[in-house]
Amino acid sequence: MKVSFQIKLFISLVLFFSGLFVLLGVYYYKDVGRQLYQEMSARAKIQAEEIAIIPNLRQSVADKDIRAIAQFMHKVVAHSDASFIVIGDDKGLHLFHSVHSDVVGKTLIGGDNADVLQGKSTTTIRKGGLGISLRSKAPIFDNAGHVVGIVSVGYLTSYLDTITLGKVINIFIAAVLLLVALFVFSWFFTRSIKKQIFSLEPREIGLLVRQQKAMMESIYEGVIAIDSELRIEVINQAARKLLGLSQPTRALRGQTIAEVIAPVPFFAREVMLENDTHDEICRFNQLTVIASRVRIMLENKLQGWVITFRDRNEIDSLSTQLSQVKRYVDNLRIMRHEQLNRMATLSGLLHMERYDDAIRYIQAQSEHAQELLDFISSHFSSPTLCGLLLGKAARAREKGVELAFDPSCRMDRPGCALGEAELISIIGNLLDNAIEATQRAELPHEPVEVLILQHEHELIIEVADRGVGIAPEIREHIFERGITTKRRGDHGIGLYLIANYVAHVGGSIEVSANEPRGTIFSLFIPETGNVLRPVPTLEDQNYAS
């Protein structure tokens, strides 16, 4: 049945006013919520700062007297409407929690303690042990003016939303009555219109455009749409913010992607035409991002691409840091294990009164350890790198593999384009892979040869093993994420990280067979990074994890 224009217009007006009221309701809800958040922020800040200056509490926190803190704070909590009150020390550890007493001694959650430990009061919205909350933190100073602890007073956002909803219900009743009146008005208004006009189509088009714009601006990730000639068609606010662009969107339209983002392999046309990619680590204008690229096809014809990217999140950084810490702890465990074995041997010789044998044993062990220590400390200036190499050497010996350092090894200045954390990750992963490959080879195990040489313009890292080598079926994919030659464990990320670190600074990697068996990894890293240098793409050279 054909619906008359009058009915159509009436329905349109009703929907319009309904939508308007919904928008006004959302605005009012958000405005009330914003005011409530401001009020509760001020209340939380005042409570935190007042608690932080109480003399008894300051002394108890300075002494880390958990029992005294708990006794005092329970009295304070009884007179506060806050969802929780937390006391922490200057190391970021719980001394008191008003809700969960079992977290005492554990690390404060949220990652917003740095400014407080510098003596500043802060108010943030973070996710903690009870959920997302609005919390204000104030530093606790001792008599000498040093920060000895943290006071955190917070209100759960669910509690604040409940208060806001109660305020909105009252206005909602009035809005419903007004909406009914508008329905009546719309009906009589549509009756006065007799002639049908063709005006809905432009309105629908305009509505779609506005919806697209609102959708783009509401996306947290950076979004850029480019045409087949690599010219920018759409770029959202998040993308401009991440890339540090001050120009408005209309000024960026029509520019090539190379004018906005420094040329990188990710935007090489031959790579983009080859295939789409997801969650690839790239470098956009000095910002490390995780980017995805998808082609836009219309009737089997390429129209362009949509690129989405986001700043590499804290979880990735934290995972990398935890991985490094795990390696350091593992190395320390191995060195401790070796030391205990040596001490047990020495203790046995002394108990048997074989003093000459004990002296010879001490001299032999001391000579070997001192020789390696002297070599590494004299050829490498970085204490972190020295610690890594000593730990890896000890770990290799425990597994029946020796590390043979080339006499020409030298790195006496921090001139590499990579940061120390990335350099440690690269060398550590290469050595781990070489040791594991050597273990899997037939006995006797030949040494893993290591060369770390710093020239005037580049750093050369070369690790050669006589292990099982790389199977032909995965040789072309060893730098892809999840590809590994290891038999067990959670692997497939080490070579991916290495390839990306090296590619980001314009370096290169060579992989060759170490006849008659084994593999040689050679890395060439420039002294200063240069992302403009034409580096093989991750797909072309398999430089993906």
UniProtKB/TrEMBL annotation:
The keyword Metal-binding does not apply. It is a multi-pass membrane protein. It is found in: Cell membrane. Keywords: ATP-binding, Cell membrane, Kinase, Membrane, Nucleotide-binding, Phosphoprotein, Transferase, Transmembrane, Transmembrane helix, Two-component regulatory system. PROSITE patterns: HIS_KIN. Its EC number is 2.7.13.3. Pfam families: HATPase_c, PAS_8, sCache_3_2, SPOB_a. It is an enzyme of class 2 (transferase). The chain crosses the membrane at residues 7-29, 168-189. CDD domains: HATPase_DpiB-CitA-like (cd16915), PAS (cd00130). InterPro entries: HATPase_C_sf, HATPase_dom, His_kinase_dom, PAS, PAS-like_dom_sf, sCache_3, Sensor-like_sf, Sig_transdc_His_kin-like_C. GO terms for molecular function: ATP binding; phosphorelay sensor kinase activity. Residues 334-529 form the Histidine kinase domain. PANTHER family: SENSOR HISTIDINE KINASE DCUS, TWO-COMPONENT HISTIDINE KINASE. This is histidine kinase. It comes from Kosakonia oryziphila.
